[in-house]
Amino acid sequence: MNIFARASLTRGPLSALSMLVLCIGLSACMNEPGQTATQPREDREPEAATGLQQSKKAVAQKYMVASANPYASEAGFRVLEQGGSAIDAAIAVQLTLTLVEPQSSGIGGGAFILHYHNALGKITTFDGRETAPMDATQDLFLDDNNKPVRWIDAVVGGRSVGVPGVLKALEDAHKKYGKLPWSTLFDYPVSLAEDGFVVSPRMAKLVKMGFNPGVKKLANASNYFYPNGQALTAGTVLKNPQLAKTYKAIAAQGSDVFYKGWIAEKIVAAVKGSAIAPGVLSLTDMANYQANEVAPVCAPYQEYKICGMAPPSSGGVAVIQILKQLEQHNMSQYAPTSATALHLFAQSSRLAFADRAKYMADPAFVDVPVMALIDSNYTEQRGQLISLTNDMGKATAGKVGQLARANDDAIEMPSTSQISIVDGQGNAISMTTSVEMAFGSAVFVEGFLLNNQLTDFALSPSKHGLPVANRLEPGKRPRSSMAPMMVFNKDGSLRLVVGSPGGSRIINYVAQTMMGVLDWELDIQEAINLPRLTNRNDSTTLEKGTEIAIHKATLEAMGHKVSVRDLNSGIQGIEVFNDKLVGGADPRREGKAIGK
After folding, report:
1. What is the C-alpha separation between 351 and 347, in angstroms, rounded?
2. Are the C-beta atoms of residues 408 and 370 closer than 8 Å to each other?
3. How far apart are alpha carbons 72 and 67 in whole angstroms?
């Protein structure tokens, strides 16, 4: 059976769904047809939009999984049916996504994982972010004139590959919170790789677009995605015996074979031998990789507690800042799609992104004032800078400490995927996982793609004589915008699990969705369906084909520079409400929520 047939569901009755307009034909669904390497960075997206599917909320009593692909949701659901834990299901989901959604995430990339243990009332996080090779230097992405290379020259090839972290983070979490044996979690992904899966319309469109030019130029990737020189087509049954072999080895030997064995040797050889921009990754870099278990970043918001990732992800801090800065403005009094609500959200986002550009980086290398940035007095003062009627223009970072730093110029175009899970014991996972740009570095080894996350560092190590916090340094983790989040009620019980792909726009997507549930009392699918709005301390972008596009002139009269375009979120969320699990999947991609 074509599993994608199961993902086409009737939309619910909510009026918010009418805000979305189906794309007619491929060209109407592309963010920027004919993108070029010389376009301004804000005009480039991590993945092109490929149209909308019909989605409706899923309701369950016991457990639920929401992921970016029906095959992956099926993999997680099977694990939950066997009594597996949330982390067990997340492993099966990620392994499946590596196969069926290679453009977005995979074992060649990195991830941030929030884990909630219901019985203990404990939330912790696992940082599986990639690290820079020890031989990487600050001039890695500078040309002969000490200027940053073109973005397309930076992202493709071995030079951009960091040490993959997702597998180690999942294994560490499984050792603490797994219930089923590690090896059994590979059964379904292995059989799918051996027997074949049906190529989705989204994957086929992204291949056909040539969104990442490196895929055609590097032989291994080209042979897989363009068999006989022709782009894969939707409905094709695609097998990946190399990945099945890789999975069997990892199932039997754990992550050691990936980081210290023959798989590591293959990865390093592929990076150093890349036909485009060879890299400096070494076997020692692979063997020394460690995932970090760290405390989450949490803060009060109204009667709730909201929690996210600590740095090097900027997502947790920035989402918390956006919400807390708006708390004094009582967003519930405004309609979600009103010009006033859009304006206020854009202003708060400006402030958060200004702080992010100056302060956020790997805390092992840079002092990041996390608690000062989310302190209630600080966020209240920042929120007071927001005018109800006028755009503030380019926001400046707040003053927290005596840190003299410059803003950075990271490309940061994560091609990313979100996994949200609640298991039968009430434990939960919010995991955002990425290979960076669509199809990553395009370096394809043993059935999977390697990331190009080193381009998430600032390409220029300093500006105006000041160091950039997010500059490239050996062993360092690049700043990210990934924002897996959880929300808890006053009694400490779980309320919401949510996250999204979408590059640096992730922060806006997640904050707006959380506000939809917490302020506007929408269910999770309704909140996901809201027309998207972003502002990264630059222009205010309104989602094309939705009802908020009519506010362009109003916002421009308030001083906004406004663009209207496709916005390609991929939110997966689960809320716990009235003793039920309610799941939602973003109609802008091909995700699905399944529960029982």
Report:
1. 7
2. no
3. 6
Q: What is the pTM of this model?
A: 0.90
- Does residue 16 surpass a pLDDT of 80? no
Q: Does 136 score more than 80 pLDDT? A: yes
- How confident is the model at residue 1, as a pLDDT? 32
Q: What is the DSSP letter of 62?
A: S
Angle between helices 315-326 and 339-359 (to 10 degrees): 140
Q: Strands 197-198 and 304-308, how do they pair? A: unpaired
Which amino acid is present at 37? A
What are the CA-CA distances from residue 349 to residues 159, 501, 544 (Å)? 33, 17, 20
Q: Which residues lie below 8 Å from residue 336, measured CB to CB, with a gap of 6+?
A: 16, 515, 516, 520, 522, 530
The terminus-to-terminus CA distance of the chain in angstroms comes to 21
Average pLDDT, the chain: 89
Task: Give the CA count within 13 Å in the CB-facing half-sphere of 417.
Answer: 35
Contact 214, 268 (CB under 8 A): no
CA distance 338 to 474: 47
**How many CA atoms lie less than 13 Å away from 525 in the CB half-sphere?**
25
What dihedral do alpha carbons 465, 470, 471, 474 form, nearest 10°? 140
3-state secondary structure of 36: coil
Residue 143 or 109, more confident: 109
DSSP 8-class letter at 550: G
Active-site residue, 416 included: yes
Question: What DSSP element (H or E) covers 211?
Answer: none
pLDDT tens readout for residues 250-274: 999 999 999 999 999 999 999 999 9
Output Rg (C-alpha) for the chain, integer angstroms.
Answer: 22
Band (149; pLDDT cuts 50, 70, 90):
confident
Task: Tell me how far apart the alpha carbons of residues 86 and 79 are, in angstroms, rounded to a whole number.
Answer: 9
Residue 442 has pLDDT above 50, yes or no: yes
pLDDT at 281 exceeding the cut of 90? yes
419: Cβ–Cβ under 8 A, 6 or more apart, which residues?
A: 65, 66, 67, 68, 72, 76, 90, 93, 94, 97, 429, 430, 431, 432, 433, 499, 572
SS3 assignment, position 154: helix
Give dist(CA 70, CA 590) in Å, integer: 7
pLDDT of residue 43: 43
CB 569 within 8 A of CB 511: no
Nearest of 358, 412, 353 to residue 151 by alpha carbon: 412
pLDDT in the model for residue 55: 62
Token pair 């972008």 in the structure block, residue:
541
- pLDDT value at 582 more than 80: yes
CA 529 to CA 584: how far, in whole Å?
9
State the catalytic residue, choosing from 131, 379, 416, 534: 416
**CA–CA gap between residue 461 and residue 305 (Å, rounded):** 36
| pLDDT for residue 110 | 97
Identity of the residue numbered 26 = L
- Rounded-to-integer distance, Cα 199 and Cα 232, Å: 8
Q: How far apart are the C-alpha atoms of 308 and 298, rounded to whole Å?
A: 6
Can you tell me the mean pLDDT for 553-562? 98
What is the band of 186 on the pLDDT scale with cuts at 50, 70, 90? very high
Residues 6+ apart with CB under 8 A from 172: 126, 291, 293
Tokens of 86: 């949330």
